[in-house]
Each structure stands twice: as structure tokens, then as C-alpha cells.
Amino acid sequence: MSRNCIGRIDFALQRRQSILDEGIALNSEPVELGEDALGRRNVARDDTEKDVAGSLPPLDSLHERHSGVTPIVCAYFGEAARCMLSMHHVSPCLLSIRNNQSKKKRTISWSAVSEKDRYAHANLDDATRDGAYIVAVAVVEAELGLFTVERATTRTGCDFYASPHQDPDDLEEAYRLEVSGTNLGNESDVRTRLKEKIEQTRRAGAILPAVACVVGFEARTVMIEKAEAD
């Protein structure tokens, strides 16, 4: 059996198990916020309208405002995010976002995932990383008003540069944006990863301050934290 076949089987098994765990029908269509395909709530019991701060920017149009993400890169990262989100949740759903000490919820929506999408993103490590990139770009824009203006080079302790200005040549107020993602796990796992990423940005010894962002797909949680430059 080829490696590709094994990867497809592994992805399908994880997808099927997550569906069974959540009680979601295999051929379900996206449903209204707060319910799964069986009419049960798809969000935590304490999720009410007053808890929701609004919606995240659509993932497939982020390239229009973020010069560090081209249309093709945006589409590729968006496919990965849709695959990872659909493994555990039904669109739309609520993300719990922790920004330092504050906590809020935002709605995230995505289009249906095809079998070809799943085959293309069957490497779940890569899909988790790439999907986390685009979700982080959306969250940092919504929460911090920062725009991803440039992809970072290696050994910089970050993945992107993000600025309150959309001009990629104006980095005076920019931050180093370090992103990570988790496929499986709970909020505690996301918090542990965030601590690791904060420490990574500090070890880099860069001049610019940093923002670390960790996206937990199963946990339905995104945590972000700023770290000042040394």
C-alpha cells in the first residue's frame, strides 16, 4: 500500500471518529450557529449571543488587506484551515479567543470541504500548521488591528511581520508574529504551547516586540499574547 493511501486512510479515520464522537451525520450540511446536524448545540452551554464579540474576517479574502498573504497562499492556507476545522466542528462555530487576560468569542465560518481538499491536506501536521497561519492572521486583525505585511525569514523567531499599517515598507510599529497550531487537545494544551512560543520569541533577541498566537482546532480556542523585545 502506498504512503498516499495510508495518509488518506489515516485522515479519513480521524475524520470519521471525530464525526462519531460529535454525533454528526456523515453527509450533513452546514447548520445554524449553535446546533449540529442532529439539532444539538455545537457550542458550549454558556455560549450565548451576548458572549459573542462578532465574526472573524472571512479567511478566503484576507489577502485583500494583508500584503504578506497572496491570493494563492491565502487559498492554500484556507483549505488547510477548513479541513482541520471540519474534522472537529460544523460551520459556523464559535472560537474562544484569549488575549492576555481578556476572553471573548467570535464566530468563524468556512465553506464545505471536498474529498480532494482532504486528500491534498492529508498530512495533518502540515495542515495544522498551515491552517493555523490563516486563522491567526484573521484573529490578530480582529483582536489587535494588525495586518500581516511580510513573511519572516528563518532564524528570526517568528513566522510573519504584522503592523497596524498595511504598508509593508512601514515596519516602525511592527510586531514579529509567531504562530503555532494544535490539531488535538484541550485549552490547557493550547496554553502550554503558547508559553513555549512566547519563550521562543524571547530567545530570538530581536529588536521588534512579538505576538505569539496558538490555534487549537479541536479545542476551538485561540490564544494570543504580546512579548516585548529584550
Describe the structure.
- By secondary structure, the chain is an alpha/beta fold.
- The protein has one domain.
- It contains five helices and eight strands.
- It has an eight-stranded mixed β-sheet, with helices on both faces.
- The radius of gyration is 17 Å and the shape is globular.
- It is 36% helix and 21% strand.
- About 10% of the residues have low confidence.
The low-confidence runs, each spanning 5 or more residues with pLDDT under 50, are: 19-35, 37-41
* 3D shape: globular
Number of DSSP helical runs: 5
For the residues shown, what is the average pLDDT? 84
Q: What's the main sheet like?
A: 8 strands, mixed
Roughly how much helix do the residues carry, as a percent range? Answer: 25-40%
How many angstroms does the end-to-end distance come to?
51 Å
What assembly state would you assign to the polypeptide chains in this entry?
single chain
- Overall structural class, as computed from helix and strand content, comes to alpha/beta
How is the largest sheet built, in terms of strand order?
Answer: 1-3-2-8-7-6-5-4
H/E topology pattern: HEHEEHHEEEHEE
Rg value: 17 Å
Number of strands: 8
Estimate the strand proportion.
15-25%
Number of domains: 1
